[in-house]
Amino acid sequence: MHKVLGFFLLNIKMIFAEKIAFVWSIIFPVFIALLVQKSMLDSLTDPNELIKYFGWFWVFIIISTFLNGVGLQAARLREYGLLKTYTLIAGNKYIFIFGMLLTQIVFCSVSLLLFTFIISSIYNVFSLKLVIVPLIGMLLALPFGLATLSLANLPVQYNNLTTIVNIFIYPIFLVAVSFHSSEFYLLKLFNPYKLIYEMTMTFANGLHILQYNGFHIGIFFVSLFYLAIGIVSLRKLNLLSVIQR
């Protein structure tokens, strides 16, 4: 446990070392909400609809954090030979990976809390229950967070991998936001944005924060699917660099 906390602190220092990137990554969702999406948010007078719209921002923050902070970060460290070095220092790869995952949980929590407090206060829907919802959504998304380690197992250089992820991440997000019909619902749940959104809104419904009837048993099975990918990816995590031997 002490080693996990040690790597957690190391990762925290690495994040704070890039102060501009750190601050921007936290305020970026607030910037998008208040400037780019302001007209849409202003048009939603029903608190129920407002919170549902907030949900897409929460999901975007969660997935971006796990993709960049876990999957792509592991791929970057692998490419420069640091993944193997940290594993040797830790004694096994699980200690370092769980330390990295813990770092991203804390970072994501800060981003979610800041976004929720600012936006919900502006639109007069702030409550303690509402603050809890995105945090639970993040915890429910941990199977996906673990599954992003599969990126580090791909025989692709980090720069190319980052480009590929960035090309696909926004279209996948737009697909999740745009299609709300019940047709092919189970298939849509394999889209991580849709899956985490449904889980988060279902939990919010359970707290009576909003009315949402999106629960489907498929949510449970698709979560298990991502968990299985995560466990396999972690066990088979490639420590060797693609470009350095």
List keywords for this structure.
245 residues, mainly alpha
**What is the distance, rounded to the nearest whole angstrom, between the alpha carbons of the first and last residues?**
31 Å
Instruction: Provide a count of the helices.
Output: 12
**Low-pLDDT residue spans:** none
Count of strand segments: 0
Mean pLDDT, rounded to whole units?
88
Rg over CA atoms: 18 Å
Question: What order do the SSEs take from the amino end to the carboxyl end, as H and E?
Answer: HHHHHHHHHHHH
- Beta-strand share of residues: under 5%
Counting structural domains, the number is 1
How does the overall form come out from the CA principal axes? globular
Q: Can you offer a commentary on this structure?
A:
The structure is a single chain. The chain has one domain. The radius of gyration is 18 Å and the shape is globular. The protein has twelve helices and no strands. The chain is 78% helix and 0% strand. The chain is mainly alpha-helical. The chain starts with a helix and ends in a 10-residue tail after the last helix. The longest helix has 33 residues.
